Amino acid sequence: MTDTPPDSLIPYDEIVQEALRAVVGRVLGQVETTGMLPGSHHFYITFKTTAPGVAIPQHLKERFPDEMTIVLQNKFWDLTVGEDGFSVGLSFNAIPAKLSVPFAAITAFVDPAVDFGLQFQAIAGPEAHDDAGNDEPEREGTPRVSAVEDGSNVVTVDFGKKK
User: pLDDT by residue (tens digit) across 64-123?
Assistant: First the structure.
């Protein structure tokens, strides 16, 4: 007997990743429909800035060359959710910006109000990045995306590559 599982002809890892990213789309779609976040819910969304389809202003690409985290809480506008991604207006150091992010570029989604988080396989190798830069005042006790590693409701899907 061998410990090596047989090669699958079904791309389970891709199917699961796509399904979990659909959760993000559904949640953001509900916010788009109602025009507001329900209760104390708010979201930290981390995404690869170099992923195909990501559209952010040049000054943000320079500041966040690999990955960035945005916060959807108090100051955001024009949230539009499509089948493959979302766009939103945010302010960074008092400068308004429009961001378009495909769901495939998202690497983490956290709703700290209910201790819920999803982590996705990165499109490129993980690298260190700066914290969210939009104008939200940081409140004491507000968890960061990195806190999802300790959360009890976090779903992490990591399918290892076969060698």
Answer: 999 999 999 988 999 999 999 999 999 998 999 999 999 999 999 999 999 999 999 865
Q: What is the pLDDT of residues 144-157, one digit of tens each?
A: 444 344 444 555 55
What is the C-alpha radius of gyration for the chain, rounded to an integer number of angstroms? Answer: 17
Q: What is the CATH number of domain 12-124?
A: 2.30.30.220
Bridge partners for 101 per DSSP: 86
Q: pTM score, two decimals?
A: 0.73
d(CA 37, CA 27): 10
153 vs 134: CA distance, rounded Å: 26
- Contact in structure between 39 and 113 (CB atoms under 8 Å): yes
Q: What is the C-alpha separation between 137 and 94, in angstroms, rounded?
A: 12
DSSP string, the chain: --SSPPPPSS-HHHHHHHHHHHHHHHHHHHHHHHTS--TT--EEEEEETTSTT-B--HHHHHH-SSEEEEEESSSEEEEEE-SSEEEEEEEETTEEEEEEEEGGGEEEEEEGGGTEEEE---SS-----PPP-BSPPPPTTPPPGGGGGG-TEEEE--PPPP-
- Domain locations in the chain as residue ranges: 12-124
